[in-house]
Structure prediction request, 352 residues.
Amino acid sequence: MDNIKIIKEQLLKDLQTIDTIKKLNDLKIEYLGKKGKITTLNSTIKSIDDDKKKEFGIKLNDLKQTFNTKYKEMYEKLNQELINQKLESERIDITLPATKIKYGSKHPISRVIEEFEDLFLSMGYTIYDGPELESDENCFQKLNIAKGHPARDAQDTFYLENEYENYLLRSQTSAAQVRAMEENKEKGPLKIVCPGKVYRKDEDATHSHQFMQIEGLVIDENVSMADLKGTLELFLKKFLGEKTTVRFRPSYFPFTEPSVEVDISCFKCGGKGCNLCKQTGFIEVLGAGMVHPHVLQMCGYDPNKYQGFAFGTGIDRFTMFKYSINDIRTIYGNDIRFLEQFDRRDDNNEIK
Prediction:
């Protein structure tokens, strides 16, 4: 009985010195652990006389209840103090100015691609996407460019290691047109545009080893050069302005016959002649022509029934025209100062 009284008095003294939850938990182990003071008292009950066991048990339970009550009270008090300290130390001053949220912007190339796609979709075209890794057959041979053909010199470039003359990074999106013609099992009319990356060994202010192209292909009965000219005039005037003059010059491409180079009146001087157009008044923007019968035949079409026209241009070049960019390398430089120039509101008042 005396031990219970002594332990209770000591417990009350110890509780007065506790100022952290850790110390409180250590005290709990000291009194109620496997070898704790109260636990030890509990194990001695068997050695007490029977007439005193009841009284001993009541006082021992009272000691346990006292400890548990005090423990709960102190834990809640210390925990609340800890919460208050955190709230005080982590307080946010809502009077401070907010952190500016930095918005990204669409890359100028992406803007031009979307504008091109919207324009051609409105003309009834569909968007076709092909792989950047292509076979030599699709990239050259089925476009009427046989092995050893001189037209390969400017394009015969990035081949896979140990796969020379088999697989390469495509040098033109015309390879996607070959795939589209072959996938058209019914061999009926086709009207597509193919935007995407292409790769060549160029590298200067106006050329890059990687750049973006968009090519168009129309196949149907009774398609003529007049359809091609009308399509390109509409496309160029919609994109560059109604005052744009379009000029067609005879040219040569292995996969079209006849072929043309397409020029536009210089947007800087209005056709008068300047350093941009090299005093000619015109700037070359794309190549086009009627699809060669051999190409149609190799892709499964009957050239006696179907005709077609194709055209292709560099998206990068039109981006440089539209945004007055002098060096193509800045487009791919990932300089945030350059890209921030295009962080603006569009005509539809949506942040892009």
Observations:
- The chain has two domains: 2-89, 108-342.
- Residues 121 and 127 are 8 Å apart (CA to CA).
- Residues 2-89 form one domain.
